[in-house]
Amino acid sequence: MKHPEDRPSSSGASQDLPEIDPNRPASPGKPQRLLLGWLFMTLMATELLARMTDNNVAQTGAWVAMAAVILASARKIGLREVYLLCLSAVLSWAVWQFSPTPQQDLAGALSQATFLMAFILLLGLLHEAAGSSPSVEALGRFLARQPAGRRFYALFSGSGIMSILFNLGVVSFLVPLIQRGIRSTDPTDPLNPIRERRQVSALLRGFAWCVIWSPTAVAPLALLELIPDVDRKLWILIGFLLFLLFMVVGAIEDRVRFRAYRPRAKQQRPIFPRMATAKFALACGWLFGPSILISNLLDETIIFGLMATCPLMLVGWLVVQNWNGGKVDLVPVGRRLKEIALDSIPQSARVAVTLGCSGFIGRAGSALVPADDVAQALGLANIPDFLLLSALPPLLASMSLFGLSPIMTAVFFGSFFGKLPVMPTDPTLLALSISMGWAMSILLSPLATPVLMINRVGGYAPTTLTWRWNLLYGVLSMLAAVPIFALLTTIVG
């Protein structure tokens, strides 16, 4: 018997599946937009300089630029950002009053905030370049128009792989394609709401689990800064294998849940875009090749290499797109760069402020916790490794229900464990466990940034996306974590 919430209406619409709204939130006024654009570019430049030189003046410049960004974004931010800023202020006072090393702790929190803010802005440059690429659009349409039997796998894996270049932008890119593809094929089909639900859920799940393996995901790169002795290559390998495992689990759950539904007609399989796929793979190589080269030449981390490569890749991608007759048409390249710097980047103000505050709160909050004393009181050293690692993901997911963003809790726990003189378990598996908690927070928290972004571009209620559509899958993922870590601690630990 079909559950009432799954039963398609006769009109082909659902109260949870709104019509596409072409209207978008108004962008800031031109003076504010120009100011934000220059401030964001200053922040990115000073943060890169600070990380390359370890210069205190450059780092202070990044802090000042971040403060100026927050002030200039006053009319742009919403209640969530105001709440996070107030919490940051309270924690700053608490650290100053109660921490034995307040200046060092606040400096670390500010540096974490500028790092995350600059990182998401620099990754956004990849989104801007890829967003105007015909090859990327061809790949997106191919994923969204797969036959029913392959659609879940295509969207799950496709959103995860495309997030390497798009990051959060893959959500705003693919959701409208899914909606247009379904509603343009047969607007009167009563199964359209079910198709939207299944495809958007597959997209969200694939994006959520990409954070445990993607080389450009914010979660791993933030944790690498906090937890010592993490083997990033091993983390990527294990994370990718788990990504495939959770894809199969999700596909089975999706098929069982909707087994009573059958399409009215056989769908035509789209042609695989070989050239577009090859160009996308080339772009990925273009990103990681220079990143590795820069990090090795300057004896820096791969994180710095990625951050430094993003502006270079943006310019290179635009040059390729405007290469005609053996030469580059510089006018459209310059016009597009100006548009990105002074119009597109300022639109990221809310996300940048949210991530910056989350990083600050996580780092400052951990400074108030005596990590060694708490670890001894909880007996972390006596807890079996697989139980500790299995408990962290649901703990992080439950904390996100109280308004704490996934990155905030991840930074908090990363800082907490990073301060311990002796790790209670293998550091690579610990970082993997925390990133799995990040993924589960995206699936289960209505306040997670990707969920709010899908709500903005697609109109789906956050509680519908998480609790109604993905709660069962999230619980299954939590249960699966126990045998997974029991096996991994035997092999790795």
From TrEMBL:
**Keyword set, alphabetical order:** Membrane, Transmembrane, Transmembrane helix
Question: Has the keyword Transmembrane helix been applied to this entry?
Answer: yes
The molecule here is called: Citrate transporter-like domain-containing protein
Renumbered to this chain, region (Disordered) spans 1-29
Tagged with keyword Transmembrane:
yes
TM annotation in the entry: 152-178, 206-227, 234-252, 272-294, 301-320, 395-417, 429-451, 471-492
- Please indicate which superkingdom the organism of origin belongs to: Bacteria
